[in-house]
């Protein structure tokens, strides 16, 4: 979450629409790579069946909305402290403490989902956390994420070799921090919610609904911490839905939450390299 707040502060100083369009193009390229790799590598299809898809979907809605409510409370608390987006952007230091605090924070956020899953005795496999297509998912998430970072650096006229030579321990902790955020959010919206909504509503409706809810989760950050205008907020939401649709597509193609989690982590980590 800290990384996303930092990102928002930086985005306000960019050509907003141009940035959204360029990243959309990069996501389309990454999506094509995912399509080619999943077709060539021969991913196994293993559909998870719920006893009552409608009830499972409604339970998922309830649990995720509670998680969104918790996130909103945290956002209001951060806003109440009076820190501006500029203060947050310049004060972030990545270390073990940062990673641990975010891990504990997200553990609280995903707790409604963990409790719901346990109460209804649902397996980890039903959340996309399993060995199913695991190695191939790691490869696809890593390859597509690295390519996206390289495309972004080229777009910003930043020398890739220079970035590599300036990597330090802070970037390592930043990557771990982004991994915590990436896995937590993908576990919520792809592994848990999307899987159940697809079983209930069908692939396209479930995919799009889960993507829209992920964008909704980030709305308070844009308004209260990013201090975005209405136009910037709407543009950002459009970009987030597109980003979320891409992550959902990765989940559909790999059937493992690992791929979108790795890509999400690398996507966020790219902002710490510039």
What does the radius of gyration come to? 18 Å
Mean pLDDT: 87
Proportion in helices: over 70%
What count of helical segments does DSSP give?
12
Strand percentage, roughly? under 5%
Spatial gap, N to C terminus: 18 Å
SSE class: mainly alpha
Tell me the total number of β-strands: 0
Please tell me what the overall shape is: globular
Q: Sketch the topology as an H/E string, one letter per element.
A: HHHHHHHHHHHH
- Number of domain modules: 1
Given as residue ranges, the uncertain stretches (5+ residues, pLDDT < 50) are 1-14, 84-90
Report the sheet with the most strands, covering strand number, pairing sense and barrel closure. Answer: none
What does this entry look like structurally?
There is one protein chain. The chain is mainly alpha-helical. It has one domain (2-41, 66-273). Helices cover 78% and strands 0% of the residues. It contains 12 helices and no strands. The protein has helices spanning 2-11, 16-41, 53-80, 85-91, 96-119, 134-155, 160-165, 169-201, 203-217, 219-225, 230-254, 258-269. α2 packs parallel to α11 (230-254), α3 (53-80) runs parallel beside α10 and α8 (169-201) packs across α9 (203-217). The model is unreliable at 1-14 and 84-90 (pLDDT under 50).
Brief characterization of the structure:
The chain is mainly alpha-helical and 274 residues long.
Furnish the topology, listing elements before pairings.
Layout: H1 2-11, H2 16-41, H3 53-80, H4 85-91, H5 96-119, H6 134-155, H7 160-165, H8 169-201, H9 203-217, H10 219-225, H11 230-254, H12 258-269
Helix pairs in contact: 1-4, 2-6, 2-11, 3-5, 3-8, 3-10, 5-8, 6-12, 8-9, 8-12, 9-11, 11-12
